[in-house]
Amino acid sequence: MSESKLRKRITQLDVFPKIERDYVDQSAGGGFVTMIVTFILSFLIFSEVLEYLNAQYDYSVVIDYTKNNNVYMNIDLTVAMECDNLRADMYDSTGTTTYAKAALSFTPTHFSVRNAVNFNNNGKAEIEGENFDMDDLMDNAEKEDDSWSSYEDEKSSCRITGQIDVHKLAGNFHITALGHGYGGKHTEHNQLNFTHRFYTFSFGDYYPGLINPLDDSVEITEKHFSYYQYFLSIVPTIYKQESSGRILYTNQYSVTDMSADVSKSHDLPGIFIKFDFEPLLVKIVQIKKSFFHFLVRLCGIVGGIYVSFGNIYRILFTIYNLIMRKNQKDSSSESEHEPLVAQSPVEH
């Protein structure tokens, strides 16, 4: 087969016919539609590029299938009382009681509310939780945490830091004064002050960068017999990156609270944190679209807008021509039926 015949057969397969420019009728209306199409395409292409560059997150809730029966409770808070007058205890729904002070570090320090906000006005966790960066989260998980170093500066407050191994059951962690509800020396009433600030409070392996509702929150009181109660609902959480395959196991929690003056009741003053684990698991998967998927969507947008507006323009142009032809036909019909003006006879 000669080259000319092969080329002729290939030419017959051409589904993109070319129209000579001399046969193309350009109009102001077509130019206006072209401007609109160009603006819409530019906006949609820009939006599609942004969506491709930004990671997407897929959230799902399933039954908790993890096998770990114990988790760490990470504690870092300051109480406006001397360490010698405080004790910390933990018990769970099995009846197991732990003298938590032996597992935690009680360090004398000064009390500071810098950068902290009242818990009831703290919207930071909600705002940052929706816009977290999983790459930063994964990178921070691989770093060593040194935020629990000792504070040597003297003062009348106590910073409580450390980790407690707790069962994955309902439990209660509380901080009280010696001699109030438990044994030990009696703490004078004028020394009671349960003003406190949470630096961080979380469950599971501690990863800097995770946002928890109690982080950087503070409660201030001027009363000696103040009672603070926090109710935590803990949900196991898995963060996963599909691109790298990295998985991060941790826990999230929601919290409600209450406080009261118990000077005239039989309740104990102190800080009480009740928690329970939900039987559900939240999976947060970072999804990155492939470049091929991005090209397919881009071609679909460009082709769809171009064809759709082309068809709309042709329909409107056809309707416009039909209206114009009808008007011309009506005007010509009226001119044909106009009566002739009679001429007056010439007088001799």
UniProtKB/TrEMBL annotation:
Subcellular location: Membrane
GO cellular component: a single term: Golgi membrane
Chief localization: membrane
Transmembrane segments: 28-46, 291-316
Endoplasmic reticulum vesicle transporter N-terminal domain ranges (all copies): 11-97
Keywords associated with the record: Membrane, Transmembrane, Transmembrane helix
GO biological process: endoplasmic reticulum to Golgi vesicle-mediated transport; retrograde vesicle-mediated transport, Golgi to endoplasmic reticulum
Record domain Endoplasmic reticulum vesicle transporter C-terminal: where: 139-309
Cited InterPro entries: Erv (IPR045888), Erv_C (IPR012936), Erv_N (IPR039542)
Protein name (record): DUF1692-domain-containing protein
Record organism: Piromyces finnis
Lineage, top ranks: Eukaryota, Fungi, Fungi incertae sedis, Chytridiomycota, Chytridiomycota incertae sedis
